[in-house]
Amino acid sequence: MYEKYFGLREKPFSLTPDPDFLYLGRKHGMALTMLEYGITHDAPIIVISGEIGSGKTTLIRHLLNTLKDNTTVGLISNTHRAFGELIQWVAMAFGLPFENREKVAIYSSFVDFLIREYGRGKRTLLIVDEAQNMDAETLEELRVISNINADKNLVLQLILVGQPELRDTLRKPCLEQFAQRISVDYHLDPLDARETREYIDHRVHTAGGDKGLFSRTAISLIHDLSTGVPRIINSLCDTVLVYAFAEGRKRVSAQLVKDMVDDKNAKGLFGAGKIRYDKMPSAETPT
Questions:
Q1: What predicted TM-score, i.e. pTM, was given to this entire model?
Q2: Alpha carbons 139 and 67: distance in angstroms, whole number
């Protein structure tokens, strides 16, 4: 809608995870480094956590795009409380037959698959996204599955990605053995004010736009409103660009952000709670 007006090739603030727009600041850069270290150094279990919208899925998609051909990946991305038989989901993640088969038969074919991949010189990686939805019993079953080894060599690695509740579950006494097998873990905190500025500039630049599209004071206000959560930043930035386009503005100011938020709050489009700001920047400063 507004892309051509602002000289953009595409929308810079889509809510859909897009690894092409990944901002590797200190936090996301460290998370990626930890993931890569864990994979290359045969960490049995890797845990990446973060609040809703912190960029976990985007990070994983970037990782998948960079893995070498010697890695076989299975992805479970739609976990839920009524998870069902875990081994069926694992088999489906790797394209193995599971329908109308007994649990023991599925497990046996999965073991054969792992040994076969290991014999071909390939590492096997199972990624579980939204893992906070798995209960302690299911996680313990996952640990048992991860115990499959060829002699002393690791044939299956796990990456669990989830919200902070995942860490709470993993701290339960009944999961002590699981926790002991976690070699790498990292929690993604929200972006600080500087990172928010770099994040917005990075996404605008990646989309082919001018980094000065958002004024410094506008970015400061967006940071306060979003508390540094990337998905909320994207939502605010995308919406305010529509407002700027509609009003014929070539640059987003703090006042325009304030007007947009006031308008949305008045219409109740942000749900039960309202987005609030504590103060308005008194003047625009050069970007």
A1: 0.87
A2: 25
